[in-house]
Amino acid sequence: MSPRTFDAPPSRMARAPGRVNLIGEHIDYCGLPVLPMALSRGVRIAFEPRADRGTRLVNAETRFAPSFFTIDAEIPPAPAGDWSNYARAAAQVLARRFPDLRGVDALVQSDLPIAAGLSSSSALVVAMALALLHANRVTVPPLELMELLAQGERYVGTAGGGMDQAIILGARAGCASRIDFHPLRLTPTAVPADWRFVVAWSLVHAEKSGAARLAYNERPRQCDEARRLVATRLGRRADITYPALLAAAPVEELLEGAAQALSDVLARRFRHVVTEGTRVPQAEAAMAAGDLAAFGRLLDASHQSLRDDYEVSHADLDRLVELAREAGAAGARLTGAGFGGSIVALCRVERAPGVVAALRERFYAPRGAADDVGRHVFLAEPSAGAEVL
Ligand code: GLA
Question: pTM higher than 0.85 for the full model?
Fold first, then answer.
């Protein structure tokens, strides 16, 4: 423990896992279900309650400078991209709910790759929130907390959906969870024992609070506009939701409406959303049935749609996906917001070493990163949600 942070070693620890989204990408903000699972890697915060409203943060990685702020309903942000903004986000949203909230001294550690599409940022928000709640002996019911923190994270300027906070708080070990929105609920499905999800980082940082932010935020706006125009075209109410639209008409009819009502770009965004929306329940059924080949095909279709219609992929993600498939994965796709970050590939347990070896030789070695393959590639273990230890 850093002597600068604590007089005595802290007695409490909040832990929040990262997540890998298996399928249902860029549709949570459209209110459509998604299917992520939590990782065993994550963020840990050792903390000690303070008697005042100050909060002192030290990061075990010294490239992240220490930070101090006072808890309040309006916390001034650190400069854009500063890591402490995720902790400030949690503190501000909780301070609005609990006006007397006191602060903590906190030491933050993480074994999650940062800006890799694995939700290190939301893991920090959630771990910080749990630390503050615990230190103040107050609670928020889980589903409410998930929604509160999703809304709170918008403090950093990203118009994200609610997937990350929900799975980080609500995951069950051994399972992926379908997350439905409005109302929020989680439905776990056991991951078959002989399936392995290989996660591989593209070596390209996808900084959602930085350069990728504008490109990310543009997508929810486009989806909204497309939905309104298609609904009007089909004689539906302009404020109909995506789930209601999908329930009301077959996908073909929706796509036909889109072709008539939308520009080329909006039609492709819309096609991604509605086709991805149909893949999620199919993937959930494939997982429940242990149908690896079917799940793999859905991953492939999802990647193609994200690459061509939604335009959130990157040449290095496409390459990783291609190599994973060639090495025997049943399917692969980019995971998370895209614009860099990671892929997730599915294979049977006995194929996993071959997939990892192929990525090492054909992706990381040519980029001078073969020695660090153990950090860049790992097998995702479906893990439990966040907790205070
Ligand atoms: C980010 C957001 C999520 C979700 C994904 C894309 O992780 O935080 O809400 O939109 O991108 O699926």
Answer: yes
